[in-house]
Specification:
The chain has 243 residues and is of the alpha/beta class. It has 2 domains: 4-95, Ubiquitin-like (UB roll); 98-235, Rossmann fold (3-Layer(aba) Sandwich), CATH 3.40.50.11690. The protein is 25% helix and 31% strand. It has 7 helices and 15 strands. The chain has helices spanning 43-54, 63-71, 136-151, 185-194, 196-199, 201-204, 231-235, and strands at 4-8, 19-21, 24-26, 31-38, 76-84, 88-95, 98-102, 106-109, 114-115, 128-130, 157-162, 168-172, 177-181, 207-211, 219-222. The strands form 3 sheets. A 9-stranded mixed sheet has the order 9-8-7-10-11-12-13-14-15, with helices on one face. The longest helix has 16 residues, at 136-151. It is elongated and about 85 Å long. The termini are far apart.
Length: 243
């Protein structure tokens, strides 16, 4: 997707001219300027939302109604609206930035807001986050912490799930699943990550599921056709050799 900076400074609603109302000249709105860096908002949907609200005089235009109409567009994060003498309205928009997918049909922005786009397929490369209803902000913060721990080991998350009992599950882009349960999840994750150097990358790539729901260790399920590790041999210190 291309990031485009849009600046509209045109006579959007020409032809109003000067009109008489109770003997007073009405100054028409000639220019509506919209400024922002947009990736998902379209110029047409912004204009469609504004059209009925700017077909009026400069002083009669309802700034609050304009602000509300633009704010209700699903990709709008923040908006400011002001009159500019003698015949313009300036609107500055900041677009929401998607951070992760929320379930199968929605997204969560970097500020924790749920966005449901028309085409979720555009965001299929984003990780999936699933959590209890109305708990997306808390779930997102937990996910960010887990991501930091994984990044230290060059691991990339594909899915992160917290069920209704607050048990955690991670799925990496490699397909590896990590079950963390409901208690001391970050402590257990850090303990597992510290063992990666002992296991070695070749062995880690053979693991299908790591179950960390144990107080003092973890269980491993191997991918089909994988020969299991000789744990006793791995735990035995190897003699050092000179030269």
């Amino acid at each position: 997707m291309t990031v485009v900076k849009i600046m509209i400074a045109a006579l959007l609603f020409a032809g109003l001219g000067w009109a008489a109302s109770v003997g007073i000249k009405i100054i028409p709105i000639k220019y509506v300027r919209i400024e922002g860096v947009f990736q998902y908002l379209s110029k047409e949907e912004i204009k469609e939302a504004l059209r009925p609200l700017v077909m009026t005089g400069f002083f009669d235009a309802d700034m609050q109604a304009i602000h509300q109409a633009v704010s209700e567009l699903i990709w709008v994060d923040t908006v400011t609206v002001k009159r500019v003498w003698p015949d313009a309205i300036d609107i500055k928009i900041r677009e929401k930035k998607p951070y992760v997918r929320w379930g199968l049909q929605s997204l969560i922005s970097t500020r924790g807001e749920i966005v449901t786009p028309k085409n979720i397929e555009l965001f299929k490369t984003l990780p999936i986050l699933q959590g209890p209803e109305q708990q997306q902000v808390k779930t997102l913060e937990i996910m960010k912490g887990v991501n930091t721990a994984l990044a230290d080991q060059s691991m990339k998350m594909a899915e992160f799930t917290i069920n209704d009992r607050w048990a955690w599950k991670i799925k990496l882009t490699t397909g590896l699943e990590i079950l963390l349960g409901r208690n001391e999840q970050l402590k257990k994750l850090q303990r597992f990550l510290k063992t990666l150097e002992v296991l070695g990358q070749e062995q880690v790539e053979k693991i299908a599921i790591v179950d960390l729901r144990y107080p003092n260790g973890y269980a491993v399920s191997w991918k089909p056709g994988t020969e299991e590790i000789d744990w006793k041999k791995m735990a035995t210190p190897q003699p050092e050799t000179d030269g």
